[in-house]
Amino acid sequence: MLSNRKVSPRMSFLAFGAAVGVCAFAGHALANPKIITFDPANSIATYAWSLNDKGVITGFYYDGSGGSTKGFVRKLDGTITTFDHATSEVTAAYGIDAKGRVAGYWSTDDGNFPGFIRSPKGTLTAFWADGSVTGTFPVSMSAASVITGSYYDLYVVPHGFVRTPNGKIKSFDVKNDAYGTSPAAINSANAVTGHWGDADGINHGFLRTSDGTITTFDAAKHATGTFAQGINTAGAIAGYYFDSSSIAHGFTRAADGTFTRFDPSGSTYTYVAGINDNGDVVGYYYDSAGLAHGFVRSNDGSFSTFDVEGATGTFANAINGSGEVVGFYIDSAENYHGFLRKP
What we know:
With 343 residues, the protein is mainly β. The protein has one helix and 28 strands. The longest helix has 11 residues, at 9-19. The protein is globular and about 50 Å long.
């Protein structure tokens, strides 16, 4: 289980997958919010990962009664449906589309990790990217059910893929000599963003448009790592980068390639998780005491920071077009729970 220290839980969970296998108005994001907390039954750790514009949430949790990891879907009325593959020890959901289809992966008895799509009726359909040896890991799903993620080859090197609703999968690498291509998000125009590693072990951001054109970038001149995490319909990208002192800062990259760098007041490390079509950015930051707090940064540059009541760490993961935020928090007993922040 993760401790509340200066690391990125988002990075850690994606690493877990590998190891075990713009509008003018954003006022709604800064209104008086209501925070709802939740857990599936028997959960000992809940991670709310994403939500669609209707407010339907997906993620995964650790089942205390059986020790396995299961996926869940939380509907608007608060009803939570849990699911897993019958023979799987690990079922993890990461993306959700406009109709409530969910994308993620599960584990098999032979140690592989196929990707899956779960229909709103509960049917799980497995898929593998060509070249996948150790696993196919979806991480993001557009409203129209186009999926992106990574698959791992024999040498456990990640490669990107895009899967269309008809099941066609296109794999890609940023460069032929890239040491790993790791998509993080896809928008409604099927543009993908994420990061890739070079031969020196430095990570850089990338944008892949629907026609396959790839642009690479770094968020700052002396950045020692750039991690793009979200992309909206207009093509604006949000993420974080590390400076020469290994301190993380947030950034946005406009469709014209212009960068804006930022940190919430009091931040010692800033992690950005996503961006919506209004240009509102969501994430979390660590203060000087090492405690994590959630934030929403509106497209005018103003911040709203927040904590779940009683939390010792609040991690915001995603924001939808209505300004609803999902994520997870740590309580005083170091247990993890899901939350929904409604504007």
